[in-house]
Amino acid sequence: AEEEVYTIVQRNIGGPVYYLEQITPSALTDAAILQTYSPATTALTGLGHLEGETVKVRGDGGVLFPDETVSSGALTVEQAVETVEVGLNFTPLVETMVPNANFGDGAAVGHDKRISKIDVLLYQTRGLRVNGMVVPDRRTDVDPLDTPPPERNEIVTVRPASGSNWSKQPTVTFTQPDPHPMTVLSATMRVEANEV
After folding, report:
1. 174 near 118, Cβ under 8 Å?
2. What is the pTM of this model?
């Protein structure tokens, strides 16, 4: 049997409130409600705990746009959905440590450095941005355009613009503006350095 984990969370929804929330690995938004409708519908109900809040809606595996505002415990979406998640969005942020490579004349602590190539191993990931650059989710020559893009399970190479981002302490950031699955298994970087 799978264990259930609950937390007490203070939220600011029409003022400070406390909710007992279950941690659900499949939920990608905060204070989320997961529902299934049969048949598919555009009218989503049971959202009183999010009254007046701007929420993200995930329907049938994809993020629906635009963001919606809950009114009278409900909202209406443009596209009929069967499985739906409605909740508060958050932006995850993962940042690497500063690389400290040896460039032959000792550690690179005093050098200006830039990260010129990043190989990122992804698992079930969509909607990723690496140092603010969008990692494409869809290959238009292969992926159908009438369904959510597939999750990435591969190594993706990102090349920052040449001549940019010189710093004594460069890092790589991974983030997502929308609630999609994201697992970064590893990141390998090519680092260039200037003379001290």
Report:
1. no
2. 0.86
